[in-house]
Amino acid sequence: EEDEMETTTDGRHRPVAIALVGCGAIGQAVIEALGADRHLAVTQVVVNDASLASVSHYLARHLPLATVGTRLDPDAGRPDLIVECAGHSALAEHVVPALAGGVPAIVASVGALHDPALRQALEAAAEGGGVRLTLVSGAIAAIDALAAARLGGLDSVHYTGRKPPRGWLGTAAAERVDLLSLTEATVVFDGSAGEAARRFPQNANVAATVSLAGLGLEATRATLIADPAVTSNVHSLVVEGGFGRFAMTIENEPLPANPKTSALTVYSIVRAIRNATGTVVI
């Protein structure tokens, strides 16, 4: 790939201007992980009304030159890249118009794509704008192997998500079992990844990512487990097809500022940003 940084009149490279949608625990961790990278600059941050005051205070300390608002600011200049880590509602509101306007996007809220209308809107906007929409792998590993294996034909893909019982509080699992009294691993869902994404939107990103890389939402099997014996978020894949078979398990440490999110999600977003703007990528 060619280096996407533009050159200024004095011969220096202009940093890639990034518009970050969302500045909660994940967004702030992304800002801090990018650090002093001279090739990248978060120039705009988009948040909802409720977060505006607190995020403005945070940015005053960490990114004093960035603008913050509830929408992309046309006076701040057109960004080179938009990065979403705000949640499902931000895709239709901010990412779709950015793509249609010719700004490539990186999206963390992959679970939102279980909605076929939103998925089609994103695809149409990217095609219309002539740019790429990148879905990050997030908390799961081996997505590159799964996507490659699909080219040779897949027979089955089974995803299992295992979390401590407290990790399922506030989800549909709490309606099925008394999570805080569990003494052994308990299946809270077993069915298609599409149904898992619809019933567990707070935990949909990994199941949706696996599905989109492989057999699709309805042909991918998903099993969700509340397990008092684990302390981390554990994701497993078993894949069979023309290539052979692979099994993978990853145990993710939580993001300190948000225990429901895996720290690997942040690193996955940062990797996607650097791959979108770098000269040599892997």
Strand runs, count: 13
Instruction: Please describe the biggest sheet, giving its number of strands, its sense, and whether it closes into a barrel.
Output: 6 strands, parallel
Q: State the helical fraction.
A: 25-40%
Rg calc: 19 Å
| Major β-sheet strand ordering | 3-2-1-4-5-6
What percent of residues are in strands? 25-35%
Distance between the termini: 12 Å
Short description:
By secondary structure, this protein is an alpha/beta fold.
Walk me through this protein's architecture:
With 282 residues, the chain is an alpha/beta fold. The protein contains 9 helices and 13 strands. It has a 6-stranded parallel beta sheet with strand order 3-2-1-4-5-6, with helices on both faces. A 5-stranded mixed beta sheet has the order 8-9-7-10-11. Strand 1, helix 1 and strand 2 form a beta-alpha-beta unit. Helix 1 packs across helix 9, helix 3 runs parallel beside helix 4 and helix 7 runs antiparallel to helix 8. The longest helix is centred in the C-terminal third of the chain and has 15 residues. The N terminus is likely disordered.
Core attributes:
5-stranded mixed sheet, 282 residues, disordered N terminus, 6-stranded parallel sheet, 9 helices, alpha/beta, globular
Indicate the topology.
Elements: E1 16-21, H1 25-34, E2 40-46, H2 52-62, E3 67-69, E4 81-84, H3 89-100, E5 105-107, H4 116-129, E6 133-135, H5 143-150, E7 154-163, H6 173-176, E8 186-192, H7 193-199, H8 204-213, E9 221-226, E10 233-241, E11 244-252, E12 254-255, E13 258-262, H9 263-277
Helix pairs in contact: 1-9, 3-4, 7-8
